[in-house]
Amino acid sequence: MLPPAALALSAALLAQAAHGAVTVYGIQGAFGATDSGTAAYTSDTAAGTAVYDPATFGGPAAFNPIILAPPPPPLPSAVPTDVLLQLPNNASQAKELTLSTAHTGPFLGFSIEMSVVNQIIGINSTYLQVPFLNLMSLVAERAGGVHVRVGGNTQENATFIPNGPDAIEKKAVPGSLTNTPDVFWSPELLYMLSNVSSLVDVQWYLGIPFNETSQLRLQIAEYGEAILGENIMGFQVGNEPDLYVRHGHRPQGWNETNYFQEFGMVVIAVDDDAHIPIKNNLIGPSVSGTWTPEDVWNTGYIEAYAHALGALAVQHYPADNCAALYPGAQYGAPINPQDMFSHYLNHSSAQNLVARYLNSTRIAQSVGKPFLMFETNTASCGGFPGISDSFGAALWGIDYAMQMAYSNFSGALLHTGGLNNSNNLFTPPPTRVSLFEQWTVGPIFYSTLVVAEALGMSGASRVADLALNNGNMYTPGYGVWENDRLSRLVLLNFVTDPSGAHDYNVTFALGGPQFGETRQVPPNITVKYLSAESVSVKENITWAGQTLGNRFQSDGTLQGEEQTITVPCNQTSLLCIITVPAPGAALVFLSDQALAESAPTTTQTFPTTAMTKTINTASVAASVLATSNGDSAADRGNLSSTDKGSMRHENAAAALVSSAMGVASLCTFLAMGIFLVF
Ligand SMILES: *[C@@H]1O[C@H](CO)[C@@H](O)[C@H](O)[C@H]1NC(C)=O
Ligand SMILES: *[C@@H]1O[C@H](CO)[C@@H](O)[C@H](O)[C@H]1NC(C)=O
Ligand SMILES: *[C@@H]1O[C@H](CO)[C@@H](O)[C@H](O)[C@H]1NC(C)=O
Ligand SMILES: *[C@@H]1O[C@H](CO)[C@@H](O)[C@H](O)[C@H]1NC(C)=O
Ligand SMILES: *[C@@H]1O[C@H](CO)[C@@H](O)[C@H](O)[C@H]1NC(C)=O
Ligand SMILES: *[C@@H]1O[C@H](CO)[C@@H](O)[C@H](O)[C@H]1NC(C)=O
Ligand SMILES: *[C@@H]1O[C@H](CO)[C@@H](O)[C@H](O)[C@H]1NC(C)=O
Ligand SMILES: *[C@@H]1O[C@H](CO)[C@@H](O)[C@H](O)[C@H]1NC(C)=O
Ligand SMILES: *[C@@H]1O[C@H](CO)[C@@H](O)[C@H](O)[C@H]1NC(C)=O
Ligand SMILES: *[C@@H]1O[C@H](CO)[C@@H](O)[C@H](O)[C@H]1NC(C)=O
Ligand SMILES: *[C@@H]1O[C@H](CO)[C@@H](O)[C@H](O)[C@H]1NC(C)=O
Ligand SMILES: *[C@@H]1O[C@H](CO)[C@@H](O)[C@H](O)[C@H]1NC(C)=O
User: Fold this and answer.
1) What gap in Å lies between CA 130 and CA 290, rounded to an integer?
2) Which ligand is nearest to the CA of 591?
3) Global confidence as pTM
4) 20 to 30 Å CA-CA from 548: which of 312, 443, 554, 579?
5) Helices 619-628 and 649-661: angle between axes, nearest 10 degrees
6) Which of 340, 344, 349, when mutated, tests ligand 9's pocket best, judged by the most ligand atoms within 8 Å of its CB?
7) Quick check: bond before 430 cis, omega within 30?
8) What residues flank ligand 9, with Cβ below 6 Å?
9) What is the DSSP string of 603-652?
10) pLDDT, tens only, 590-642
11) CA dihedral over 351, 353, 356, 358, signed as positive or negative
């Protein structure tokens, strides 16, 4: 999407901006064609915490090694380090807090630009990217499922081809300034997604092309329903229609009323299409901020299409980096990411982002529709190198997602694009032939693990922003009441201070007479930390002691032994003290049950104790075995733990997927050229 600043563009520049928000094809030249070109930047280690900005870096943004300076710590007096927190156990006693509606574990999911599915998900139904499966499995095991959207700008022109051998093909549009490719997709795309769903519990959002409504192309819904069935969550109708005129996709003057009318044409066409059995899973209006949601609600949209709408949605990024991506007068001087870093490292960012939607989440609730943040991330136009790919983005992602949960969004999808995107949650290596373990997992991916565990699998988690520390902007905190009992706390510290002077302690008490409850503390509580040395780093990030690996080193599995911290509570003072390091996030489990339910190998189908899960396994191996044996999921935890020491994970996963799916080699990754999407 494009920034508000772009509103003032002249007509000529509009044409260029039209392509600014979509895929750039094959113009980067410096890499992709050969393997040799990658050495220069894959060896750039981005290590440590020292500021680093190699002027000569020529590789893609996804691999930019820049390390920014963390914002200087605020004056100690500005961040009290001894924080008293007393909360009721029973949600109905939380009168001073507003609790959200109930959320499910897969609240925070993924949005993948349609034009890069062949790099990220797979080439065809029998050639899946195992690191992607591993990453999805990590979330699914914690959340009870994963929601993934395949779409974006490139869904709009996407064209069905019945017999394509690959999931998608891309063809450059002649004359297009940026050589933007159109996506041609075949049923293989849907079989590929279906095969992913058979291995990992992934459900999908897709998009119906909306570049024109006089000749609708509904095959994605026809084939999607037929092939993916209940694994379809819904079909988006129009990706950021409020930018169509600016992008040259609709004539000047086209407005909310026109969107309303054209949406209605799709509703009628779907109703009339016998090949689309489900009539009530369309998603709109997906406006990005140029139109407010109210601009669309005021057309009568919700009332007119309530029978067809499965969810209401918006898309929004807090900032853009368009000036850097498109040098020239139209966007002004590039923004220095260093100047923006502090904007992501306080609670106002999350609060500001949701504020404009509070009216709409209330309206959505009143009409019984989910309200989704369908596409978001740190910044559009590729994000900010050094921010979007830093540990700070992971902390920001947690705060933003929890704030959306608190504000009664029903779900949110973090967008991942191509190699020229610093926002990516995961990026395959850019080489033509690459090794299995060479993915780069963006720090913001960790936020999906933390949020999944914070919400758990019950589907009954309600969230409150605790205004922790008197609402201090550097130390936000959330409480999660599950089935109306306080089960978890999420405590954040945005400050970087290696001296420890900005670590803070939450002194926590449960219950008390003011809540009509007996004050008590459990014998102990369990804490998992998301940790790194500084908000600036890209590497050495751990979640409960485990890491997904440094840049170019991930196979999508967590490495190392899980480390949970047991904090004994004082049975005399009836207090528990939780330290939150600067920087970091702490997820506090207030009961063994809360811990067990979020535990990776504990699923609803085969609960085990939380203590069996510390062994480092290839998660896909387990799920593939479960599938290929035709066994129930009950075997899964057991099989996972038998992997220890028997095979290296990637070989295990590859071999098992091979045998299950008849794939000769999953270790070969074929990059189809270089694309960028944001
Ligand atoms: C990661 O941490 C280890 C030990 O703390 C250190 O030796 C190593 O240099 C760090 N690596 C990076 C990339 O920061
Ligand atoms: C929570 O409080 C409400 C209102 O006082 C009460 O009806 C309910 O039984 C309590 N729930 C539990 C689990 O104690
Ligand atoms: C899927 O793609 C791989 C890699 O290009 C190829 O070897 C395989 O034959 C393809 N499978 C099908 C069913 O076309
Ligand atoms: C979509 O198709 C139209 C008509 O062929 C073309 O003008 C446009 O550039 C294509 N691509 C995008 C991204 O709109
Ligand atoms: C919409 O996209 C299709 C596929 O690229 C293209 O054939 C068609 O001309 C486009 N329509 C418009 C109005 O650009
Ligand atoms: C994967 O897709 C193919 C279609 O190409 C299908 O024959 C096969 O059964 C699928 N496998 C799974 C596990 O769904
Ligand atoms: C959109 O434009 C039409 C035609 O000018 C006008 O009648 C209508 O009121 C406009 N709708 C909105 C929401 O401004
Ligand atoms: C909420 O949205 C409705 C529908 O657009 C509008 O009428 C109302 O004024 C809005 N309320 C606020 C407080 O923005
Ligand atoms: C906090 O974040 C907001 C919103 O991003 C930003 O405008 C502000 O400058 C930040 N404040 C500080 C003190 O960093
Ligand atoms: C936080 O708690 C720890 C452990 O109880 C203690 O050692 C430390 O001094 C406390 N820090 C502050 C700032 O109170
Ligand atoms: C922590 O407390 C629970 C009871 O809530 C108990 O089952 C467990 O053994 C305790 N763990 C430790 C390490 O003290
Ligand atoms: C527990 O709290 C009591 C009462 O405040 C205090 O005297 C005691 O030192 C505390 N115990 C520990 C281990 O901190």
Assistant:
1) 38
2) 11
3) 0.87
4) 579
5) 20
6) 349
7) no
8) 342-343, 346, 348-349, 352
9) -SSS---GGG--S---HHHHHHHHHHTT--GGGHHHHHHHTTTTS-HHHH
10) 998 889 888 775 332 222 211 122 222 233 333 332 222 222 222 222 222 22
11) negative
